[in-house]
Backbone:
């Protein structure tokens, strides 16, 4: 767990405007906890075996992109609210999304990302747990 609490906002990509909708907020009440927050840069690599050699040709092909995954544990007002949240949450998120991550004084953005993964567990009493996956071309401190 990080020492500084995070808040993650989102908006539909390429729409401009403000990031007014919260996806997760560790400062919220009754409570949310963000864990396994992991931005990761990937790239395309070509690997070719060399004829008659025990070595391979390896070359970067660029095409770098970022993946961002995290899990949010939420506490809801009642078991019924937790179940209703899980029933509707996934369809409320846009397919193409801009994320704004605020952690203390640091703000980072995952821009023009594809929302491609949501893994929700059955609610346990008043709590829910959802893991998210996003992939986009940039993850930096420049606002889209």
Residues:
């Amino acid at each position: 767990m990080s020492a500084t609490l995070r808040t993650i906002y989102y908006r539909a990509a390429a729409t401009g405007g403000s990031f007014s909708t919260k996806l997760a907020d560790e400062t919220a009440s009754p409570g949310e906890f963000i864990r396994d927050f992991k931005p990761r840069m990937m790239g395309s690599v070509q690997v070719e075996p060399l004829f008659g050699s025990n070595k391979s040709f390896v070359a970067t092909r660029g095409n770098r992109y970022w993946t961002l995954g995290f899990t949010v544990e939420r506490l809801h007002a009642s078991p019924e609210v937790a179940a209703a949240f899980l029933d509707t949450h996934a369809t409320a998120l846009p397919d193409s999304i801009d994320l704004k991550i605020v952690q203390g004084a640091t703000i980072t953005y995952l821009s023009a990302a594809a929302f491609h993964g949501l893994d929700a567990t059955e609610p346990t009493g008043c709590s829910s747990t959802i893991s998210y996956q996003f992939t986009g071309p940039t993850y930096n401190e420049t606002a889209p």
